[in-house]
Design goal:
The chain is built from 6 helices and 9 strands. By secondary structure, it is α/β, with parallel strands linked by helices. α1 runs parallel beside α4. The chain is globular and about 45 Å long. This is Class I SAM-dependent methyltransferase.
């Protein structure tokens, strides 16, 4: 695991309230809508990659999902969610890991959600490792919800460079040979400071 990168995110979440960071959402509305579109049953295995202090896990628990994993590099981020959830945190699997290094079982997940990690992978090797992880870990017929900075979005986030994608570039990367496109679109996120951030998103289904 990259220690400087881990420390970067540890510092962010140790020194800032989750509501102060640019990616904060009071409601993870688009993500939840796309997950609902997948029509999963409550026993489905769901992972939120880079979930950190996001409220998506709260909403998934409210929807009745029983098998949720939240992965993040920063233990401090996960602790924020655990404190917020209280006893409900015991219903969630919390994983401190780098997504390009962690090992999952093949066909482990019914749905993989990522609004926070993939666009930070700017090296080709890391991007390919991510692709291998998600393709292997998703069950046949499983869903991928992916959101990144759009082609006209921010160049950096939290001081780190990001890779920007159009929806077509995301479709090309994840491969129409492996995934069917269920929905594609754009979203404008308004940061707590009132700034606009442009995102591309996809809902894909593994063949």
């Amino acid at each position: 695991m990259s220690q400087p990168l881990t420390q970067h995110w540890q510092t962010i979440y140790s020194t800032k309230d989750p509501k102060e960071v640019s990616w904060f959402q009071a409601q993870a509305s688009t993500s939840l809508r796309l997950i609902q579109k997948a029509q999963l049953n409550p026993e489905a295995e769901i992972i939120d990659v880079g979930g950190g202090a996001s409220v998506l896990v709260d909403q998934l628990l409210e929807q009745g999902f029983k098998h949720i994993t939240v992965l993040d590099l920063a233990e401090a981020a996960l602790q924020k969610s655990q404190v917020r959830l209280g006893e409900l945190a015991n219903k969630v699997t919390w994983l401190i890991a780098n997504i390009v290094e962690v090992e999952f079982a093949d066909h482990q997940f019914d749905l993989w959600h990522d609004r926070a990690v993939f666009h930070f992978l700017t090296e080709h090797n890391d991007q390919q490792r991510y692709l291998q992880k998600v393709t292997a870990a998703l069950k046949s017929g499983g869903y991928l919800v992916i959101s990144t900075f759009a082609e006209d979005g921010a160049l950096k986030c939290s001081g780190l460079p990001v890779q920007r994608y159009s929806t077509q570039e995301l479709i090309h990367f994840f491969g129409q040979s492996a995934f069917d496109v269920v929905e594609e679109g754009k979203e404008v996120h308004i940061t707590p400071a009132g700034n606009e951030q442009k995102f591309s998103y996809l809902l894909l289904r593994k063949k």
